[in-house]
Amino acid sequence: MLVPIAPVGASDLRNMLIHPDRLFPAESSTRAIARRLYESVRALPIVSPHGHTQAAWFAANEPFPDAAQLFVTPDHYVTRMLYSQGVPLEVLGIGQAKVRDPRKIWHIFAKHYYLFRGTPTRLWLDFAFQELFELDKLLSGETADLYFDTIGEKLGASEFRPRALYERFNLEVLATTDSPLDSLSDHQAIRNSNWKAQILPTFRPDPVVDPDFEGFRENVRKLGELTGEDTASWAGYLKALRKTRSRFRAMGCAATDHGHPTARTANLPAVECTEMFQGVVKGNADAEHRELFRAQMLTEMARMSVEDGLVMQIHPGSARNHNRQLYERYGRDVGADIPTPTNYVDGLRALLEQFGNERDLRIILFTLDESTYSRELAPLAGHYPCLLLGPPWWFHDSPEGMKRFRERVTETAGFYNTAGFNDDTRAFLSIPGRHDVARRMDCAFLAKLVAEHRLGEDEALEVARDLTYTLVKKAYRL
Amino acid sequence: MLVPIAPVGASDLRNMLIHPDRLFPAESSTRAIARRLYESVRALPIVSPHGHTQAAWFAANEPFPDAAQLFVTPDHYVTRMLYSQGVPLEVLGIGQAKVRDPRKIWHIFAKHYYLFRGTPTRLWLDFAFQELFELDKLLSGETADLYFDTIGEKLGASEFRPRALYERFNLEVLATTDSPLDSLSDHQAIRNSNWKAQILPTFRPDPVVDPDFEGFRENVRKLGELTGEDTASWAGYLKALRKTRSRFRAMGCAATDHGHPTARTANLPAVECTEMFQGVVKGNADAEHRELFRAQMLTEMARMSVEDGLVMQIHPGSARNHNRQLYERYGRDVGADIPTPTNYVDGLRALLEQFGNERDLRIILFTLDESTYSRELAPLAGHYPCLLLGPPWWFHDSPEGMKRFRERVTETAGFYNTAGFNDDTRAFLSIPGRHDVARRMDCAFLAKLVAEHRLGEDEALEVARDLTYTLVKKAYRL
Amino acid sequence: MLVPIAPVGASDLRNMLIHPDRLFPAESSTRAIARRLYESVRALPIVSPHGHTQAAWFAANEPFPDAAQLFVTPDHYVTRMLYSQGVPLEVLGIGQAKVRDPRKIWHIFAKHYYLFRGTPTRLWLDFAFQELFELDKLLSGETADLYFDTIGEKLGASEFRPRALYERFNLEVLATTDSPLDSLSDHQAIRNSNWKAQILPTFRPDPVVDPDFEGFRENVRKLGELTGEDTASWAGYLKALRKTRSRFRAMGCAATDHGHPTARTANLPAVECTEMFQGVVKGNADAEHRELFRAQMLTEMARMSVEDGLVMQIHPGSARNHNRQLYERYGRDVGADIPTPTNYVDGLRALLEQFGNERDLRIILFTLDESTYSRELAPLAGHYPCLLLGPPWWFHDSPEGMKRFRERVTETAGFYNTAGFNDDTRAFLSIPGRHDVARRMDCAFLAKLVAEHRLGEDEALEVARDLTYTLVKKAYRL
User: Fold this and answer.
1) Is A80–C384 a contact, with Cβ atoms under 8 angstroms apart?
2) Which of A185, A250, A368, C63 is the most buried (most CB within 10 A)?
3) Residue B467 region, left (φ>0) first, then alpha (ψ -120 to 50), else beta?
4) In this structure, are residues A50 and A257 in contact, taking their beta carbons and an 8 Å threshold?
5) Which residues are A200's β-sheet partners?
6) Residue B313 lies in a domain
7) d(Cα B314, Cα B262) in Å, to the nearest integer?
8) Do B92 and B73 touch, CB atoms closer than 8 A?
9) pTM over 0.95, yes/no
10) Could you tell me if A194 and A145 lie in one domain?
11) Is the CB of B383 less than 8 angstroms away from the CB of C336?
12) Same-domain pairing of B169 and B311
């Protein structure tokens, strides 16, 4: 089982990429408290209720390819930073004219590794390099080959296959994110095998509820085919969604996920919904109309969640594909998503007026706009029974981001209106490192409260466990 | 006199809910400075220029009821948090079908006290439990009866009557908040008694200047009756307001308070005001029209403040009664107010263009939108002679909230464009605890400046006194 | 050469305005790291690529006048604070009826010096007072004459002339900010002299591209005269701008600077531009039209930067002359500029769609809206190759402001998408003090990363040098 190493003697620290006291406050009495708190949660199982790993990896259980294809090309944290400093995407293995030699890609990355100083990517990668691949010299142009070869060699070993790593990572639950059009055959294959892991799909309906999603109309048509419902009508469309949710639940799905551009919700009469649906499905709805449809669909999804118990996750506020040239050249995942100001107070009003006081509804809110933490999200979650706050998301999924989240949210919403940690990653090998950062930052925050006599250490021990394990299972009903 | 206990030996700390070093930075040299600064302000009188206690308590001087009615049912910080975690309001003594047994209510609260970990409510309550009621074990299901009985017994004693507590709390001034329709008979009764306390009304005209206030039109009619002015006309309405301000001033009133949804102000010609007034008073004004009327009324209030010297307090940016179901079922105070983004730079422009450079005008600004601290409020208060910044308000009236306020405001507006502390509370027994938190956080902030050689300790001692005592008296002309 | 003093023995510290450890974290191990990092950059040359000093000072090399004219009257940080506390501007030497006795002005300032406690102005001034004028008692009413006389005497000496100070300050580059209508004769005069300093103009086209700039239409006419182009036509106007940029480049200009009210950009067809230009140049464009013109001009400036290599600086988000009464009475520089919420994600879209992926374009973004650091600016700069982030600007050019900048920007954009420090000052004597604050705060930030094992100390030493020296030269192509 891979759990982060426990503190060791100073003599062992010289050749370490990651220090046992990393991320703990420097002040010695606070650090001592942080160590004790962390030690109590260090080896707890990882519950990962939201992420973007592929069920196919675990179904096939093939070895991962080389270092470049594992750590560089698919990781948009990495490719963004390199691109921002003038490295062409082709050199990173992206696009038509892409470089195909993984060692070359890896060298470019290694040479630019200094760009990640002070970023969470550096923390996650160094964790994996040391803890998984037993590397102990900093990645650079000089150590590039050593890294490439060491990683390549290990990836071939059976203990680096996806299922072995799942077990070694001490994962208790791992959720993927899936389109309503996905057959979930990989999930089925995992279930059919003898392997006893909990790998759960998540229902992400954006392709069939967002009129601006690529291929939306075709997707709605396919949804009809898959479900045997008439998705040309509003009623049939809703039935098709209900059926698909039910199919997902049968495969262990615990939650839905909604990546809308804004937090807007609407609650219109059925007549208007019918008419609006006709507009979007025929492709003659204008921008406001399409936004209103998305808004209505959040409320419809909430209604279905009240019925079927799926936990709703709302991830609003990202301007997708901001870089139009890149989007046109390389497609959806390279187009640079940039956060936008997000208004939850007005946006969520329609949904909350209808379902805000439902005890059986659970909605987990995320944000890319940190100004909403203390202004909107903590006051909302500190009042509405259906609301919980998800952990800091994406750009804020970092030590300082986690610190700001706890500092701005806790005093109004407390700890118990938050939903534990999500790693939200497509980089499977970064999962232990990401959870480790979250555990350390939560313990560092709690240690400060204890050191400043705002909380007893006995209580902090309880909270540390809750933030790491209990709350996430409760939030997602796992 | 109740002042927070001074630091004591470590052996006495074991049985304490609140530690003498609470809220001070853990780093030892900084903590030593914070202790010295705090010791210099610990026992200063409390000046409370803005709050929501009831003059009737001091007029009648009856004992407070039991622990549940004192600490749970009326405190929306408490009821919000419990409600957010699924506790029905009825169980907390709210609503038609409410639980009436205070011990039962108290037990529910005690069992959920862990929800308040990391919140200011916990700090305020533990302060009162220990310092006033001499309790020294943490509140929980197990200690619920001990608490309920101890508190109940003490509340019966004469030294726990409102007037005795006022004196024990070392209050020098206590302001209430009052409708223009209030007769102020309780304030008169206090004055008529021999008791020499300074309990002052505050003029809060929202019921008669906000067309969206429940009963607005009827309120304006009553204002006419009370003042003998024709409040069906714009001129008569303004006269009625002037007369009422004068009546308040005669009772010691120092300030007005304005709880508008936005910071918008307007400065329209009299003809337009007349017309607009007719619209709102006849109830046929639309939303924009009603907002414009409120905007105009802020400027009218400023004009009257220039004349009569009442200090203006503007508290904008709260979306009142966001939870419509609760509002409809339980009324105005349970409906969940949620902060909204607030724009002061454009909003206040009309008022400031007219009166911004008046040396006799004093306007104290509050916010629920912390993103405005460094962007708008500090630059405005660091320029306009009439503007001061009120302390962190409501959701931000907390250790981290106070820290953010000083960190974001001081470098642009300095200390001397701020207005000291407001406890803003309806929970009379929390007043010493709230002021204690503010004094500690200000001293902690100053101690950091001293430890980092950004300010001399002799100067910090002066500033600590100013923030605690001098500036609030100056700001409110007390 | 004036470089900040190195740490000295405790016995020497008693009579010091500024402490050798100022701004370093109090925690001893972190402070020790900060000292080592700072020591490595303390004496590096100052590169000042953006500011508001006058080339004329260096052309003429006359002595600076008295303390009041040097430190009080022209410094809007100083006059704002005093004005906010009721000091009339006339008393500070501003306006028709101004006080003309500099000693009187100085006394007023000295008496109010306590207002600057906790502000960066205090840090900058104390630095100059001690390091340049060898004063060691705090400025106050009592020490006012001592200060006035000491400063006055020294200013007369040859080593306090502008050129001597430039050398003593260890300046390597100093950029001024200049109108396209400026002849740059002072820059020419400096070049013509034997003095080997790098004093460079910056192209600030606001007077001829912002229709709301005072005298805009007349300015455009003059631009035509100066360049021999027909600035009554869109094509001629663009040619005139190109020619002027070329004239600036010939004088060493490295960058342009754009002080627009918003970050809005546009990219309209030539036909629409022609029409829009006719509207603004004839003075019959409405507010939206004028804003759209500014938006288009940012894109035009970007186009020209792609051609000629001038680095673009965009400084948006200031509501200029907010205090209309003061503006009307005292003019443009006294009218109080207040930051406004700024949207970069939508605002810059048109420009970035056209030029965002140009490797030869460099755009440095500044903000007065700190909520955009983590939400918009870091994600944008962490993706687009043409974007870099400028240092904290104006109200945020302060220890806490710098801390927030690094904390919110680094995790997404890294260090290498930032552009080093700008002092942005018109107060020449504050330059060393301002750079010293920036160096200390960057080292304090890095020391924390090292102490928390988020970065190796060897790497931090490299980053410290990069932030102080390397990145600014690279960003501005110096």
Assistant:
1) no
2) A368
3) alpha
4) yes
5) A175
6) yes
7) 10
8) yes
9) yes
10) no
11) yes
12) yes
Q: Which of C352, C411, C466 to mutate to test the interface with A (most CBs of A within 10 A)?
A: C411
> Taking CB atoms and an 8 Å cutoff, what residues of chain A touch C414?
81, 115-119
ipTM of the complex: 0.96
Pull the structure tokens for residue A34: 């942080």
Last residue of a domain, one of A111, A134, A160: A160
Q: Mutate which of B81, B324, B338, B393 to disrupt the A interface (most A C-beta within 10 Å)? A: B338
**Are A130 and A278 members of one domain?**
no
| Residues of B with Cβ-Cβ distance to A382 under 8 angstroms | 80-81, 84
Using CB atoms within 10 Å of the CB of residue B287, give its burial: 0 to 12 exposed, 13 to 18 middle, 19+ buried. Answer: exposed
Size of the A and C interface in Cβ pairs below 8 Å: 129
Q: Is A21 in Cβ contact with C382 (below 8 Å)?
A: no
A49 in any annotated domain: no
From B5's Cα to the closest Cα of chain A, the distance in A is 15
Distance from CA of B365 to the nearest CA of A (A): 17
Kindly tell me the sign of the dihedral angle through the C-alpha atoms of A4, A10, A11, A13.
positive
Q: Which residue of A76, A393, A395, A402 is the best one to mutate when testing the C interface, meaning the one whose CB has the most C CBs within 10 A?
A: A395
Nearest to A323 among C371, C384, C454 (CB): C384
Pair (B261, B379) in one structural domain: yes
Does residue B30 fall inside a structural domain?
no
Residues 6+ apart with CB under 8 A from C11: none
State how many domains chain A has: 2
Distance from CA of A413 to the nearest CA of B (A): 7
Query: Quick one: pLDDT at residue B332?
Result: 76
The model's pLDDT over B424-451, given as tens digits with 9 standing for 90+, comes to 999 999 999 999 999 999 999 999 999 9
B251: helix, strand or coil: coil
Instruction: Select from B125, B158, B191 the last residue of a domain.
Output: B158
- In terms of Cα–Cα distance, which of A175, A94, A101, A130 is closest to A2? A130
Tell me, yes or no, whether B216 and B355 share the same domain.
yes
Q: Are B294 and A321 in contact (CB under 8 A)?
A: no
How near does any CA of chain B get to the CA of A187, in Å?
A: 34
| CB distance A374 to A407 below 8 Å | no
Residues B119 and B231 in one domain: no
Residues B136 and B171 in one domain: no
Average pLDDT, rounded, for chain C: 95
Cβ separation B27–C23 shorter than 8 A = no
Same domain, A245 and A309: yes
For residues A251 and A259, give the distance between their C-alpha atoms in angstroms, rounded to a whole number.
22
Measured between CB atoms, which of B19, B119, B326 is closest to A357?
B326
Rg (CA), chain B: 23
Mutate to test the interface with A, among B14, B262, B376, B400 (most CBs of A within 10 A): B400
CA distances from A75 to A109, A349, A393, B391, C84 (A): 12, 36, 16, 44, 51
Contact list, C416 vs chain A (CB under 8 Å): 85, 114-115
Q: Tokens 């700024």 label which residue?
A: C342
CATH number for C77: 1.10.2020.10
How high is the pLDDT of residue B7? 44
Instruction: Identify the domain containing residue A110 by its residue range.
Output: 64-160
Specify the CATH number for the domain of residue C435: 3.20.20.140
Question: Does B116 sit within 8 Å of A455, measured CB to CB?
Answer: no
10-residue stretch averages of pLDDT, chain B, 478 residues long:
54 75 98 98 98 97 96 95 97 95 98 98 98 96 98 97 97 98 98 95 98 96 98 98 98 97 98 97 96 98 98 95 92 85 97 95 98 98 98 97 98 98 95 98 98 97 98 98
What is the rounded CA–CA span in Å between residue A258 and residue A246? 17
Query: Two tokens at C240?
Result: 């005139």
Among partner residues C18, C24, C323, which is closest to B384 by beta-carbon distance? C323
Residues of B in contact with A379 (CB under 8 A): 337-339, 395
In a domain, C59, yes or no: no
